[in-house]
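For the sake of transparency, this paper describes our internal protein records without simplification. Such a record has a labelled line for the sequence and another for the backbone structure tokens. Nothing more is needed to write down the fold, since each code stands for a local backbone conformation. For reference, a complete record is included directly beneath this paragraph.
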Amino acid sequence: MWNNVIFSDEKTFKSYSNGRRRVYRPPGTRYDERYCNKYKQSGRFSVNVWGWVSSRGRGICAIVEERLNANVYRRLLEELMLPSVIPVFGERNFIFQQDNCPVHNARLVSRYLEAQGVNVLPWPSRSPDLNVIENVWGEMQKYIYQNDFRPRNPLELQEKIVEAWETVTPGYMRQLVCFHASSTTECDRCKWCNDKILIS
């Protein structure tokens, strides 16, 4: 059941918002300073995080300061994922979801999860929109960059990320997972996805 799935992924938050903004301007004023945002070409930085969510609410959102490789990811699973998931779901009562990036599929990681008896959900290729945590990242991004927020240093951005994470409520997650569960039956028949997600 989807209620027992742990949805996980990484996300990079930048010191500036690179999303599109809708601007209403008179014809012929595309490059007018009044309708342009200025960004510094230097001094940019970013913060990488890893987190998990489920139908029961948000799990953890951890700052990842190292370059993510198989060793770092395995340590992350051991030190952060399992200790935070097991108290909520029990040792064998959850299904772990991760995408198919090379780090996640590394032999070191696969062997560790197998040794721990973690049930890993088979995941179709090229399907980020099926992971409900992407919706969470999107809402967090809106929250962080509202009112044209521009952090002066990585610590300010980290604090804003934590603040945004804490706005994710159990009610929002229940609604998100419920919508996801009702939409995946259609995904099995979509043209671009040859794989199927099977939950017993």
